[in-house]
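Why run this: before we spend reagent on co-expression, it is cheaper to look at a predicted model of the complex and decide which construct boundaries make sense. The entries below are exactly what would go into the expression plan.
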Amino acid sequence: MYTQFFGNYLLSNGYVTKEQLFSAMRREATQHMKLGTLAMHAGLMTASQVDETVIQQTHQDRKFGELAVELGYMTDEQVLSLLKQQNPAYLSLGQVLLDDGVITNADFEKIMKDYSSSNGISDLDAITEMPEAIHNLLNHFLLKSETNISHNGYMFVELLFNDFIRFIGEDFTPLAVDEVTEAPIQCCVEQDVHGEYAINTYISMDEPTAIAFASRYVHDEFQEYDEYVQSSLEDFLNLQNGLFIVNISNDSNTELTLGVPEQKEGDKLTFKNKTLHFTILYPFGNIDFYVELA
Amino acid sequence: MSIDDIKILITDDSILARKQLKDIISTLGSPVFIEAKDGQDAIDKYKENQPDLVFLDIVMPKKDGNTAIEEIIAHDPKATIIIASSVGTQSQLKLALEAGAKDFIQKPLNKEQVIGVVQRFLEGR
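The model came back. Tokens follow.
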């Protein structure tokens, strides 16, 4: 989840254009060695063990290394040693931007320094290993938008970014969060979460973006906006919220329930309560995600 | 008994989830598929078709998965019902199993898991 915020920093501070960033992120992603690949290369895990861990990851929203240890495939020490072999993603992203001539070495030095200090991170390289560092990063990202958010809210947002990474792709940049009272309806799906922590969630995007989104989500090539594309949006939202209530149940024994995902019709959404708006920029289009506190 | 001789009822309000389940199961052979898009539809189609195996989502319009399990089991105590849901909390799992579900698959659907469930069912017959 780290490169995405780094991308946001680069974009919002004018170091890169959206096109330069997407191009660099796409190439960074192809260079980025995943932990499972490193584990297979080191002879620590078999391909089927890696596959099993990745499946568990989508069901439990946990880190690969953490699950691999729990499943008995690796020890904590082995995971740490592999993590050290991984180039931090921000570094390879910086390298691509340097190679492209988008930034200079001097720029990169300044960016790293400013980025660490503005986010209260002491060790940029260690960030992927420390949940509290990611929490810190998320906190600063949300605070910049002057948004107060509860513990459950953090869990929701962290999971949301993880789900975009896992199911749609790493090559996105989140924009600063804002509060809204209404929003235009494009291809839009709503699902409500009921119970002690009740929220209404919405995902919205234009048709070409929805087609590309669904194609990535289902690993298929959709050509037009049809019922499968619409269903993909509902499915993604349902998956996010399903995992969220599992996380909440495990975290605090609070049992929440889900409403049925619904397609929204009309011109605009009008929110009655405080509503946070997340904009996710992908190379194929922009996705709007709204969380209304019910 | 082979997969080609059985009827499978797939219940999910998501047309995508129904297609994904059918695509995965079809790699094993060609059972007769019956589709339902909500809990009430599942109950009606069960009574009408007496399928051998039922896949059921939990969060659905009209009647949810748990209510559908209860009504199907009341009609046929031997029904084999598998839950396929994104809501994998312990309490949800407990409710579904208590209502009479035989197994639980958490979404996103995983091919090996779905195939494993179908194969266990075929071997157990």
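The mean pLDDT of chain B is 93. Chain B touches chain A through 23 residues (CB under 8 Å). Bring this page to Monday's planning discussion.
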